[in-house]
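Give me the fold.
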Amino acid sequence: MAVFARPRQAFVIAGVLGLALSATACGTGDDDSSNSNADSAECAPYQDYQGHDGKEVSIYASIRDAEADLLQDSWQQFTDCTGIEIDYEGSGEFEAQLQVRVDGGNAPDIAFIPQPGLIERFANSGKLKAASAETKAMAEQNYPADWLKYSTVGGQFYGAPLGSNVKSFVWYSPKMFQEKGWTVPTTWDDMIKLSDTIAGSGMKPWCAGIESGDATGWPATDWIEDVLLRTQTPEVYDQWTTHGIPFNDPRVVDAVDRAGSILRNEKYVNGGYGGVKSIATTSFQEAGLPITQDKCALHRQASFYANQWPEGTKVAEDGDVFAFYFPAIDAAKGKPVLGGGEFTVAFTDRPEVQAVQTYLASGEHANSRAKLGNWVSANNKLDVANVANPIDKLSVELLQDTSSVFRFDGSDLMPAAVGAGTFWKEMVSWINGKDTKAALDAIEASWPN
């Protein structure tokens, strides 16, 4: 679920330093918009974006607070060198208000949209502008085709990805593993053997929680999506998310049952909280915390869970907690990676808007943002050396791995009535004991005609 891709702590000091350095290197220091340093060495990377001095481009997104500050710092040198002013606004009501603004004739120039389905809706209504040839070329140069298809509608490309998150992780305690003599599993079978070993020691190996207020159930949908990517081909996953095959297809039933071999196994869960049914009432924020209390050993959750650990917890390969890749079932099929992210799409096509859209797809921007901390991107020009946070570094390495096969969060690709409705609801019922086929039959019946 993309809405949870954002709770990330910010390195504000780094952002302030980045802003100060970029302003010194390339800014004019004057109140007017004259761009006297445009030809300086520091501004050389921005030569292709010149010619729009004094123009303004508005951007609207869900990214706000400290992260919004870092985002604005990341393009400060671009604005100083080109003279293009970027008017950024982040909102917690982004998805709902974007539709209102677009329908009211007050659309932003650019929006960072985290739901491919919303991009498709705006594109099909004729509201979005196709990306320029320059933006398309930049995106094709810097991003895998697996990503670009999510902002391509009817053969028309609308915008490059921006930030990303990786969901295919299992959190654990390196200290606990070392003390117990356990080895991080690299195959599905090894992970199940490890689970059996841990269960045999008297500890429930897995802890989980899917309670999330009005969105209760979403962590379970991530489990199903991750497992389906490991039991079937990426093409079958694509057919499932677009209703090319029924939601209750036998291959989906099989994937849900395989997920259930962990989530509905009383020997495996729910360490620190109780039995299987406690998963439905355990909040996703607290679900992994028993790892730090030696009450469970494994917790499958996205990279952004790094921000849920108690203050002072060291997140690193030699730290209190870290994560490993949720293993593939058949390694010969590559590394399936489930994740999410935002896409930079435009509602206007003025030259300065196209320039900003192209720049945001560049390696220069990806590295500028990464240097400020707390950033993951699938941009293959991103230098991993610029990514300081260990879990972010692991995420970037996984996204840049040529054997990785990326697929977007399935519930964000489905109609809202399903992806953010019956899928969540029926997964709660399933955790509480409902038959797999019956739960999937109910979701299939809810798919809009």
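Residues 315 and 321 are 5 Å apart (CA to CA).
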